[in-house]
Amino acid sequence: MFLRKRGVPPIFSSVIFGSLFFVPAILFSAHQTVPWSFGYLSCLSWLFIGPFMIYKAGQMVDELWSDMLDILDERHIEELQSYERKFHSYGYLAIGLPAAVIVSILILSSQAFSYDTFFAYILFYLISWVVLALLGSIGVWGTVQLVMLVLAIRKYNLKLNSLSDDRFGGMEFLADFGIKATIMYSTGALMIPMAIEIATRGDLYLQAVSFAIAGAGSFASSVLLSFMIQVFALNRAAVRGKKEILKRTGEQYTALLQEYEKRGSLDFGIRILVMQGLFDEAYQMRVYPWDVGILLKLAGSVALPIVLGTIRLWFPWIPMH
Question: What is the reported pTM?
């Protein structure tokens, strides 16, 4: 964000930031200071997009509230904005600092790798992993706040519109917001190859293989879970809102029908037909934000960590370390 204040677009700022780590790692490998490591370079490649993802996530949260006005009262939105404040807070350090400490201890205790190297590379390796731990914790923290936000929405009576073009009562923007956040979170799978690589590096690490595989599987599951929680939360809100619309429309339809039986005027007949059409529209309103586009995006975000976690199986010719 330092470069953005000087007119550099966020995506270029992110690329420059990633290059500060990726280029030196390539140079170390080119000069054969250390063997080339697919897992390590895979992790560092996340630094090309990680800062930009975090910037876009913050922008998405900031822009969310204008759409929220269509389904919630202003006072309810003010209550929910506490999650935005938490998103922009330093709460991620509760995750990032312990992770950075653990990474530092592991690297220093194992001397960065099981072979001789020099201090400059060990220092570079240590700093890069601390940065990865801190940036990764921002993604985890942001995803947790998003899930908490969507869960909190369930307790409010939403002003759903059964005539909305999205056929989801006007809540499709929330489903789209959720899938974008899930895809951003899934990019953390670029770190999985390093976990597998470390676990299979030598006899010292063989006992950690099962933990690394379990961790990769857990991450893939957490990607899916983070989205499914949001989907079912929106489903609960949509079901409750749909029932309320059907109940209100049904009561109005019954009242109009009674008036028509008393008066039999053409005006009441037309209003009954209109109300019947509104009832049909409400009845057909979706209660799950499913469509082909969302399903494909979800499948892609879940497939990424799975593919990277099993990359040696699919591409055995890749030199992991």
Answer: 0.73
